[in-house]
């Protein structure tokens, strides 16, 4: 594969995916262009060996399946998540202060707050409208220009700002939206954007799920362009890599990509990893192609393997003491196996050994991350999926800096490295 072409596809995917709903829409478009057939959960499914299909839930989670031409004995599963920390609008968002219309926000996920100040912010998400004939419809909205900003307070008025003062998201982070605006202006503007983007006039906006996003486009950074800087690398980078691997695989083996919403807030939802989405899909597939019944389902799950892909903490050159001395992954040093004895990651020695062998086969370097013994660590969909399904799982990811910031940094070569490793996984005949 051409590394430059791969990175251009990644940058375009990031540009088109300001929200989980947009990310799933972008992934679905690529799947359909590659011949995947869309399934509806409300319909009866008719599946055939060798088919390529996908299904979505809540329009923010997706499962794509490459069915084997022969017996459905095992699946090579790749997991990721579509959501990222950010600022979401409250239902009654409009508020006024000092002659400005501002928008009240909730923080979504464990986010770094300070980087959101003084950034050009766009607005995106989904909303639901009622047509004059009473019909309800859900729509995606992406205001792809700067419409808001959260201005910092001048240092002259807050001399202690650089001394670690806490930020109050309720009182200090309402974005400035419209000078002289009133509360009714928000609905007027939303209706105008709906008309502009969807050609719909006269609709009533019933509800919305909207959030702000950074308008600075993703870019290659560094003297030799060795870095990628973008919003939402955690975890759209893994969604992209998993999709690339599935599409580039040889199609001979059973393979699956699942990208769940709501990982950043615990995964406990109908479309999150702790919910029934993946299990529902697998049971329906097993019913048609795997023999059906609970015993057949358990045999399928235990013969399968899951690689949960979520970015890993790279060694930061300004904060090397934040890593265990023997486990500091480098950008452009290859995918990272994530290990935690307390099961915050699902990796065990058997699943890690399989991944190391995949990397050897693909000619890819591999690294390991373990947090310091005196620090906690995050988690992923890996342990949750393993708990819900019982599938043998490991956690891996591309290394990155500035996780949960408005703009994150990863290595260009790691995109190709992890893609090659996952292609080898999708093509692997023996998962034992």
UniProtKB/TrEMBL annotation:
Cofactor(s) essential for the protein: Zn(2+)
InterPro entries named among the record's database cross-references: Peptidase_M18, Peptidase_M18_dom2
Statement: the UniProt record of this protein carries the keyword Protease: yes
A single MF term (Gene Ontology): aminopeptidase activity
The keyword Ribonucleoprotein is annotated on this UniProt entry: no
Matching CDD domains: M18_DAP
Enzyme Commission designation: 3.4.11.-
Keyword annotations from UniProtKB, A to Z: Aminopeptidase, Hydrolase, Metal-binding, Metalloprotease, Protease, Zinc
Annotated transmembrane regions: none
Pfam families linked: Peptidase_M18 (PF02127)
Organism superkingdom: Bacteria
Family of the protein in this entry: Belongs to the peptidase M18 family.
NCBIfam families for the chain: PRK02813.1 (NF002759)
Protein name: M18 family aminopeptidase
């Amino acid at each position: 594969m051409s590394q430059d072409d791969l990175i251009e596809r990644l940058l375009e995917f990031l540009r088109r995916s300001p929200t989980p709903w947009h990310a799933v829409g972008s992934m679905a478009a690529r799947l359909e262009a590659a011949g995947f057939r869309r399934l509806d959960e409300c319909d009866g499914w008719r599946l055939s060996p060798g088919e390529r299909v996908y299904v979505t839930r809540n329009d923010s989670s997706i499962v794509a399946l490459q069915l084997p031409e022969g017996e459905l004995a095992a699946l090579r599963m790749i997991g990721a998540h579509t959501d990222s920390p950010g600022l979401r609008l409250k239902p009654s968002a409009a508020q006024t202060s000092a002659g400005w219309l501002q928008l009240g926000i909730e923080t979504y996920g464990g986010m770094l707050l300070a980087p959101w100040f003084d950034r050009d912010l766009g607005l995106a998400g989904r909303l639901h409208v009622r047509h004059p004939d009473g019909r309800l419809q859900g729509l995606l909205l992406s205001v792809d220009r700067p419409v808001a900003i959260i201005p910092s307070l001048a240092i002259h008025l807050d001399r202690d700002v650089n001394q670690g003062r806490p930020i109050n998201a309720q009182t200090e982070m309402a974005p400035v939206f419209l000078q002289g605006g009133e509360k009714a202006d928000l609905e007027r503007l939303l209706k105008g954007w709906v008309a502009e983007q969807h050609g719909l006039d006269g609709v009533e906006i019933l509800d919305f799920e909207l959030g702000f996003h950074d308008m600075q486009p993703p870019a290659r950074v560094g003297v030799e362009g060795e870095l990628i800087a973008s919003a939402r690398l955690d975890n759209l980078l893994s969604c992209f890599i998993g999709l690339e691997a599935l599409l580039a695989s040889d199609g001979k083996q059973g393979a699956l990509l699942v990208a769940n919403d709501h990982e950043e807030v615990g995964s406990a939802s109908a479309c999150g990893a702790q919910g029934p989405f993946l299990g529902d899909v697998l049971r329906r597939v097993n019913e048609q192609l795997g023999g059906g019944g609970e015993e057949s389902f358990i045999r399928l799950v235990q013969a399968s393997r899951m690689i949960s892909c979520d970015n890993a903490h790279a060694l930061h050159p300004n904060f090397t003491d934040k890593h265990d001395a023997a486990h500091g992954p480098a950008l452009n040093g290859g995918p990272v196996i994530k290990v935690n004895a307390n099961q915050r990651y699902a990796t065990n020695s058997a699943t890690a050994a399989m991944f190391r062998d995949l990397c050897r086969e693909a000619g890819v370097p591999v690294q390991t991350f373990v947090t310091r013994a005196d620090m906690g660590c995050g988690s992923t969909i890996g342990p949750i999926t393993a708990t819900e399904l019982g599938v043998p799982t490991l956690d891996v990811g591309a290394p990155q800096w500035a996780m949960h910031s408005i703009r994150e940094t990863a290595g260009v070569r790691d995109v190709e490295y992890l893609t090659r490793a996952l292609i080898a996984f999708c093509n692997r005949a023996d998962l034992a």
